[in-house]
Amino acid sequence: MSSRDLILARVRRALAGVPDVEITRAYRGPSRTPGEIRLFEERVRDYRAVVHLVDEAGVAERVALSLAGRGARRVVVPAGFPARWLAAADAEAVADDPPLSAADLDAVDGVLTTCAVAIAETGTIVLDAGPGQGRRALTLVPDHHLCVVRADQVVAGVPDAVDRLAPARPLTWISGPSATSDIELNRVEGVHGPRTLEVLIVA
């Protein structure tokens, strides 16, 4: 008998005759709170991300201004990203079909995506590889990530986000641009992902 079997046998003997006890789990469920858009905007700014609040009619212009402001000439645009939001942009939209290599992704000026859900409490954007989001590598290699978030995608907290997400999908949780600190707390950005995260909130 192994040590593992011995321990489990002792546990079984100790629990013999003990009645089953129902454990109640009071997990926090989905909720709605006022000011979710404003809170999300504040939290995203706290992460040193660039945030713009626009209406639907102003998305294309804001995308064009953001790309022009960075001198972006070539940007990756995943399948399903609304074409109308690219109408004013003076940059080449690069498709990920066939899949771009890491070197190809490193050579572009940025990536444009939508998202699956955004969390006000944590300032987190979640991508699930759905329409307009593409595969995970698209948002990890380019140095600039411009993400369009619709107001109806912003939820109060993590439980609300989990309630909307499918656990079988490849989820990428983004809280600000990529950043890390060494032992002396010197912040370095762009090590594990994009150096710049820009968020357009469509309200």
From TrEMBL:
InterPro entries: FTHF_cligase-like_sf, LUD_dom, NagB/RpiA_transferase-like. It holds the Pfam family LUD_dom. Residues 105-202 form the LUD domain. This is Lactate utilization protein C. It comes from Microbispora catharanthi.
